[in-house]
Amino acid sequence: MSKANATETPLDAVAGAAGPRATEVFSVLGHDTRLAILLALWEAYEPFTADNAVSFAELRKHVGMRDGSQFNYHLKQLVDYFVRQTDDGYELRRAGHRLVQTVIAGTGLEDVALAPTEVERACPVCGAPTAITYRDEMLVHVCTECEGRFGDREQFRGGTLSAAGLDPAGVPDRSPEELLNAASIRGTWNTQSRIEGVCTGCSGPIDSWLHVCDDHAAEGVCPTCERRYAVMARFRCPVCKASGEIVPSCSWLVMHHPAVVAFYYDRGVPLQYEDDDSGSFQPRYRDVDPKEDIDYELIAEDPPRVRVTFRHEDAELQLTLDEDVNVIDVGVKD
Ligand SMILES: [Zn+2]
Ligand SMILES: [Zn+2]
Ligand SMILES: [Zn+2]
Known about the structure:
Arc Repressor Mutant, subunit A, 13 strands, 334 residues, binds zinc ion, 10 helices
């Protein structure tokens, strides 16, 4: 360890420890006002709210700083790292959320991006070729032709089929297919943990419920909810506000249920851990066609009940979900 000279800051002295970007980010955080801004934006954030932006004036008032130019200086230091500026004000980027969550929950940064790249996976909605893109620490799977499952909204652009958090460390040295598999494994793991009541962000409890759009368009992406499907299973952690939603017919949601595993296992459908040429690992149910083999139906509205159907050749497995996303009934038809 070299002896620091007089003009070197302590952060300069440890620049070799985690690389220059890490020390840059640490120094950005080195001010009470900036930390207060991050906390104020997190406090204002509410999952599933269309607009979480806080105006400059509101934010300055909340942080209690009189000097506008001083406040603006500190706020600008955070933009690009932790804060996003929108037309309506300021909001936390995912890295900002993670940082606050880390502080609150008791865990990281490199700028990795991937331009849309085609993957060998047909669109579960229309059968067209699909592509992946990586930004803001999200791996986004998009259809190259149809509107996908989601319209334009926070984190998603038209054509989005799924979006899953994938840390930058998961991106290098993986093919596009492997990236999609990695994101899908993280997504399924997250979902299973949430279904079993544990937040993967902070280990806190999870609220889960079926969200039903009350004015859903019969076809395409609905203008009311910006989703193709009227029903979504939603998860929210009341401690760190980690959240996610999933289409009931997505295999991620109930794939770990013993009835689903048994249904496919008994019929010789490979589930996982088989080595082939498709990459270093395989997601479960890669031979199950999400367009043809899985379906869901809203069978009651108050409280909502959803029946998910899995098909294999002539056999069918049906699972009924209650309003809290618990499996309350299982039936097999051969
Ligand atoms: Zn499509
Ligand atoms: Zn949490
Ligand atoms: Zn809708």
